[in-house]
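agent: user wants the full assembly modeled, not chains individually. Plan: 1) parse entity lines 2) check alphabet per entity 3) run joint structure prediction 4) return tokens. Steps 1-2 passed, two entities, 891 residues total. Proceeding.
--- entities ---
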Amino acid sequence: MSIDLSQFKQSFLEESDEGLDVLESGLLALDSGTADDEVIHAVFRAAHSIKGGAGTFSLTEIASFTHVMETLLDEMRDGRRAISKEAINVLLNSVDVLRELLDAARDDVPPEMSRVNEIQAKLEAVLNAGNNQATEDKQEAETESEQQEPEADGWVIKFHPHEHMLRTGNDTVRMFKELAALGDLENRVNLSGLPEFEHMDPELSYLSWILHLKKNEQQGAIDKAVIEEIFEWVEDDCDLSIEPLTSEPDDTSTSEQNDSPQPAEIPVSETITAADNVIPITGESDAQTVPSKVPAAGVQQPAEAQQKSSTRKKKATETGSIRVGTDKIDTLINMVGELVITQSMLSQMGEDFSMDKIEDLREGLAQLERNTRELQESVMRIRMLPISSSFQRFPRLVHDLGQKMNKKIELKMFGEQTELDKTVMEKIGDPLVHLVRNSLDHGIEDPQTRLAAGKSETGTITLNAYHQGGFIIIEISDDGAGLPRDKLLNKAIEKGLVTEQDNLPDEKIYDLIFHPGFSTVDQISDISGRGVGMDVVRKNIKELGGNVDVRTEEGRGTTFTIRLPLTLAILDGQLVKVGNETYIIPLVSIIESLEIETDNINTIAGTTEVYKMRDKYIPLVRLYEVFDVQPGTHRLQDCLLVVVEGDGGKAGILVDDLLSQQQVVIKSLETNYKRIQGVSGATILGDGTVALILDMSGLLTLAKEIEPVQNYQNQTYANG
Amino acid sequence: MSDIQDIVGELDALTDENAEQYLTFVLAGEEYAIDVLRVREIKGWDKVTTLPRTPDYLQGVINLRGTIVPIVDLRKRFNLPEIAYGPTTVVIVLKVFGEEHDRIMGIIVDAVSDVHNLKYDSIRPAPEMKGYVDNRFVNGLATINNKMVVLMDIDALMSSAEMDEVEQPAA
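--- prediction returned ---
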């Protein structure tokens, strides 16, 4: 075929990823016994689709591997095999293997076959163990008929497609052509199903066929399985029977086709119908696929050509496309419509404007503001996806880890429909996994301990997500052992982080777990315990503009609460003035602002300035010095101090004035220039000018590096 | 007479595939030219927001319809005496091809002249000389209206390597 399939490969990979998710969640449901009849069919269909698609794209390893899975699943859905835990575990492992195979296909590298072969062997072992008497009988029967086969000259294939078979893009002619390649094909068509020409719908299938496929000298005997494979795609959409051909004459008298039609012998034609029917629609998707997905795949090609494919290790959640519900798009279209109306209203007003119309103008502008704000919110919501795609990996994780650790764990998830920005969701995945693993490992006790403590044998981990204010809150709680307060305190004292006299309040003690390198476990497992996780979790969450807290009760359980802003592109900022320049300090970084009392300024070794705030000393950062701008005043007592928190701790930023607080849109400096230390981005103020958004961590690092220029001189300013 | 010849030459060049169009501008009395396809727009001078800890010829950034665009003062870049910005001061907004991606940047010049067609074979290589305009940035020399015009290589001039020149922290 001359069509280029490669642009559809991306679609196939994405749909297969979704199919794998269906497989996994279905298998887990079957395992826990909460599945209804439909589940096993859905699982089978998912495997079937992946196999078919893999075949289309010549991904033979995937196709043959999935075929084994499918055979097993087929037996299970037909009731010929019990759904055993062992089988499910092997199938779950197969899902993992398939993921690896798909990744290899995505990156265009040959897959690593050792694991594939290992799991395939396990699958086949399960299949062959087939401990049903019925299965054994069937197998015996099959081997008998198989032994008969070499004697048959060929096969009689009765093929009656259902009306809608053509709708799935399957073409009878092609199938027959493949059959013809196997041997000598004779074809009888039954036209009796054809309606009157006026009533005929070209998209429906009204015909049925009886085919005789005889072996010829070149091809030799034809394997029944090969014939079945040709009809694989349409298995569910047709009535198919394949019987061995005996030397009887034409076998046209069957129950289905009583009225013998004109035995028109139609030679298998060479024509192939429209090439764009090659890709069958799997029909598994819930939300409607945005048609732009395929062009997106096409667009991705040149982009990928530029970047080396080795640097791409993308998982399904990190592809460049996004599914958007059509309702969001409709809302957007409506809002743009309203915006256009408002704009034309305003421009008409501007045509012959006179001052007495000023009230109308004000109204029009207020209307414009409303429209713009609604549009902005609407557009941002497009990037929002339900958190379920992040949550969906947890049932599997909990299942596997629970088995591994011999703990009984139930996972409850709430608020899966809560939406958050796509990028935020991708980045929150790993921290969430870490927190859940921690709960599994350290939180939930093993069954005996739980029983002894009067709890139920099965521990519960709960994931809960909801919106609050402009934030999304994600809670991870368990009913396990809670954090051991004293153990934490002792470890902290041991590490020299605190002293006994410090008398930390409980929450501060629990907060210690986020300290780098901190761990109270006696044994490091491969799951957790090295003490490198929690600080990274907190850092990652902070980078997203959020924070994470812990609440715990010994013996009862622990809850981690993650707070995240709903979007990354907008920041709440405090505008500050230094000289003629306006800067923006992110509100999340600001602890407090105060007026300077010059008595509280001290120097250390004549170089570093510190400010005494209550009973602590914090470094003083003269922003005008760091950025080399002219300060408005050199009289420190006229300046204000903004106390901020960066990565390295607290500091006080010296500014001339505090202006307003407002939401600003973050614009990148790196797009057209490059990264500047101390600056995280820029924004455009209401008057059209550019203001820089400060990055506290970078700023503090910078301040330490800068040689404090003539600091002793500044002392005189302090008094002046 | 020479004017007519020039015009004929240009008309020739217009239909000629071996010619390209250049925008010429004036900087400290000298004429320079850049490929017109790189020019996105020409603006008047507007207030600029300075960026901290950057070379002094990087005047700052402006808001160009929602995009942050860095502006380079060419006089400072070439160590020419500075003049006050006035009503004829012009900012040429350019598209610069970088190693990884394209960027939008602007240059401040004294004034903008015209767009000319230049045939490839009328461009002479620049002699090796020590001047304020480094040879790295010069693609060649041409003559327009009997005046010498320096063809500037915008990508080399505005590349990130160049932008880093004076960029050491004051430690």
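agent: reporting back. The interface with chain B takes residues 581, 626-629, 667-669, 671-674, 676-679, 682, 684, 688-692, 702, 705-707 of chain A (CB under 8 Å). Chain A has five domains: 6-131, 145-268, 326-382, 386-565, 570-719.
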